[in-house]
Every structure is written in structure tokens, then in C-alpha cells.
Amino acid sequence: MTPARNRFALAAAALLLPLAWPAAAAAAPSPDPVVLSVGHVDAMQAYMNGDSLDLRVKDDTGASVRYHDPADVVLQVLPEAEYPIPAGDTWSFLGEAGDPMWMLPLTQDPGLLWPGWSSEPLARGQFQGDRLSMELVEVDGPGDVVLWSLSSFGQPTLYASTRDGLPDTISVNVPAHVHSYWAFTAEGAYTLTWSVSGTLADGTPVSTEAVDYHWHVGEMSDPDPDPDPDPGPPDESDLEGRLVLDEGHVDVLSLALEDGEFALNSKDDTRLHDPSAVIRDPDDVVFHATPESETILSDNFANPGYSEVGAPGDTRWFLPDVQEQGVLFAGWDTNGVPNGALEGDALDLTLTDYAGPGDLVMLTVDDFGDAAVEIDSEDALPQTIATRSRTHAHINWYFSEPGIYRLTWQATATTAAGDPIESEPRDYLFLVGEWPGTDPDPDPDPDPDPVLEHTQTITAEVDADAGGLVLSVDPDDRTVALPAMTLSPDATRWTTEGELRPVTVTDTRSADPGWNAVGQVSAFSSGDHEYAGSHLGWIPGLTSAGASQSVAPGPGVDGLLDGGPGLATSQLLASAPSGSGNGTAVLGADLILGLPTDVESGTYTALVTFTAI
């Protein structure tokens, strides 16, 4: 389905003051985990992975949101979190008064991890009673673990505690975003095992597996700098547990500059597993060049440049630089690297290592049909694609043989200050051709392959009379001019509030599958100054809906200065469930913008992009 999109400008009025810009035994963690020790994280985020309920880690600690498999993360409680247990009966549930504990607070401390849990990827009405049950199944570690909150009158409300036995169950609203106090009574490594369950609106019970989360309290020793210097050729075992991306748009290499360091990941815009684009760890996905990518080389491949791919009549597996149905549209994206951060805005994407059953050639074609080879695996490595910051590009990929390939990429550049900068080398797994073990004459109703059970094969029949899904804004009413910003009463930020202009969603599809409308805002910029869209929050609302529609506004989203993710990532504006989406709904939202006190004067402008799917 092609999503309906629209966008309009949102401008903050000029600031008035010139200010200066600045179960079984616990599984071991990954041998090279992501360590999260400072900043906001939804440690347990529940989401639907196809038809299954699953858990992941939503990482808001950097400049952009990242999602991790819990097995690939260690959540660290820094030594600075140590406190004595307070005296008094009120706090006896934590242990003996005066004994040490390592506590992560309910509200954010900028020097510590701020973990919580959320069900925000799930929609209101998707689960019976809009409820889930989250269970702390087991804890393995050197001390006790206690989670609690405080009532309006400062009395503790216990969520879970190993001191009075497990399992403990926490009721979670859908959608919801929750934080608590976390206390650990000894330093060392812990494994907390969680599971989440609920009942879908149609009465189907769903539950996650028991998922291990790895914590470390106190200092961590340095990991083995080279735990597996020679991983060997990839095989079928490397495919296990990965999300399969086999059709649609994907930026295989997605580069961001976070806290002065390069972060090299992948940007999944296929919409196969999430309703919006998602930054993914390449260790969590496999890029599948399906059998539909198989092609016979034409006579053009006798020409210079093309001949490096193969000879006319040869078979290759081809991922093109233009989008085609049934195959991946694969490229790279460096929009996470701001202009001016690098010397000449130049950077290199380097293929440093390569393993697979055949060869890979990556080439571009100019406006006159001439080919330029960027990567040829037959030649010595490393090989480099020269690109720039704030760039989104695609290229033609040709694999010579079916099978499993591992491509190791690294990003390098020189900062504007003249210092070299490079990312960690990252491995990217490609499967070319048939999935291993595919039966050429399969059972008409086989058991699902555990690797493929969250993927879909889509067959579409177009009926021009069946209607469509259209999102629109009035072309004469597409600018939000927020009032002049004022200093907050506590003098901690500049703030302003306003209203989104009307956004109209019209659904005339006869199947009435329902829809989600989401919005995402670009950075606010004024001249050379820029602030991330995460500084903008909203409270969605519904202006009107059709008589047969059941439209629910999305949850409120706090901006960055209030501890929320803001609108720099896609956020739900409204949704309509299957069977209740036909008609016209007019959507709106209250907007809250907060900028730090050291912002430069100017008129700051951003674009909000809306998508309906």
C-alpha cells in the first residue's frame, strides 16, 4: 500500500533577547553489547512483531532513537547511583536502614540512566481493556532488586521486589509510558527476566517469550577488545532471530553523528515490521535479495563499466537504484550528520571486509547511461564510496551467486576541527536467492518458518472503484505561527504553545482496513542555528469524524526538555481500527515547544510531515 503523505511549515516566532548559542539459566549477554548508562531508555518496550507480542529496548540516549534486541544491551547503574537506605518503617521494604543501595530515580538525573517501560507502539483498542500484564519472572544477581513509585502523598507503591518472592506482575495501560524507582542492593551483574501478555481485541491471547535483560551495577571491566577476530564465512545459523527485509525502501547504511561520534546502523523504511521508518542495529536484520531479483544480463553488459558485472547472458541477483515491486530498494543515508560538522562535509563509506559465495559489484549510472563501478569485491579491500553529510542515495547491487554474504562497512571522515573520526566496523548480512530449506513444492499449509513467521508475501489486486486513503492539509492553511516564546516561570527554558492546523484523513476503501496517521517534525532552524525536532511535543485531538468512524487521538508526547522523545521520530496523531475507518476525520493537536535558555535569537522554522497508512 502506498501511504498518503503531506507536510506543512511550522514556525516559532522570533525570540526577543540575543542569547549565546552553545525459566532456564539466564543467557549471557552479547559478547560485544551496547552499554547504556546515561539518558532515557524504555528498557521494556512492548510491540507487535507481526502477529506476535515482543519486547525490545528503545534507546533514546543519543541524538536519534535506536531499537535493540535486549540480548545486545547491558543497562549500567553507575557508581554515582549509590545511596544509603533511608531510616524509618516507610523504607523498610528496601532493606536495613543505612545499608547501601544503587538507585535510579523516578525523574531524570542527567548523570544516570533513566529507564522505564512503554506500550506506545500499540494502539488504543488493540487489546481488550487497553491493558497488558508485565511480569518480572526471575532475577539472577548478587543482591535484591526493587521497583516502586510514589503516591501523590509521597507513600511508596511497590511494583516488584525480589525481597518478597517472584514472579511479580505490573499492569500496563495501552498505550502508556511509565517510569519508576529502581534499586539494587549489591554491585555486580544481574539478569532480570521479563514477559508481557495480553488479549487482543478479537479475543486472541498473546504473550512474549521470557526475555532476559542484562544489568550491571557499578564499574564494568573492559570487554575483550577482539573477542572473535575471524568469524568465518556466514552460514544459516547467522540468519536465526533476525528481522527479514525483503521488499521496499531500506538504507542499508544509515550514519548519524551522536555526541561527537559516528553511529553506523540501518534505516528500515520497508514498513514490513513497523508502520514508520525505524533505525535498526544491523545485527538484528538480514537483507534478502529474493528470487524475484534474479536477472539475465542484457547486451548492455558488454559495454565499459557494465562488463565488470558479467557478460551478456550471465545470471545475477540485482537490487536496482530505482524502486521496483518485489525487491529491496537499497541505498545509504547520512542525514544524521549535520552540514558543517565535517571538513568539506565529505565522508567515506568503506567496505573493509567481505565474505560470501560469489562476487558483489555496486555501480551507479549517469544521465547518459554510462556506468561507474564503486565497489567490486574481486579487487582488493578496502574499497570506498565517497559521499557527503546530509545525503540520501541509491546504487545498483549485483550479486553473482545465491547464498549468504557478510559485508563489513565503516564510515570515516575528518571533523571541521581537523580531527579524524570513524565509526566502529559493522557487519551487514545479505541472503541472496531462495531461503535455505525452501521446498520447491511446499505443503499448502506448512508450519511457519521461525525466521519468516513475521514476514509477509503480499499479492495486490487493484479495483479502481474500491476507493482510497487520502491525507491532506488545506494549501491555504498550512502554516503554524506560534506566539513569541517567553521565559518559563522557573527560568529553565523558552516556551511557546499553539495549535496544529487541521489535518484531514479520508478513507473510502471498501475493505475498511483501518488506518494510522502519524507525524514527524524536522529540525527547527534559523540561519546557521538548529534545534532537533525532539524539542516539540504535542497533545493530539479530534476535531470531527464521520458518523460510522471510530477515531482515537494518539497519546500525548512530551518534548525533549520534559524528558520525552518529542516529534523528531514518527509519532501517532490518530488511528481508526479495522471496520471503523471509512469516512472523513479532521485531526488536530496542541503543540508545546521548549528550547534551552542559551538559544540564539531568530525565527525558527521546521516542517511537519504527515503519513497515513
From TrEMBL:
Q: What protein name is recorded for this chain?
A: Surface-anchored protein
Please list where the region (Disordered) is annotated.
Answer: 217-240
Per the UniProt record, the lineage of the source organism begins with:
Bacteria, Bacillati, Actinomycetota, Actinomycetes, Glycomycetales
| NCBIfam families, per database record | choice_anch_M, P_ac_wall_RPT
Kindly indicate whether the keyword Signal belongs to this entry. Answer: yes
Biased segments, Acidic residues type: 221-238
The alphabetical list of record keywords is:
Signal
The secretion signal range is 1-27
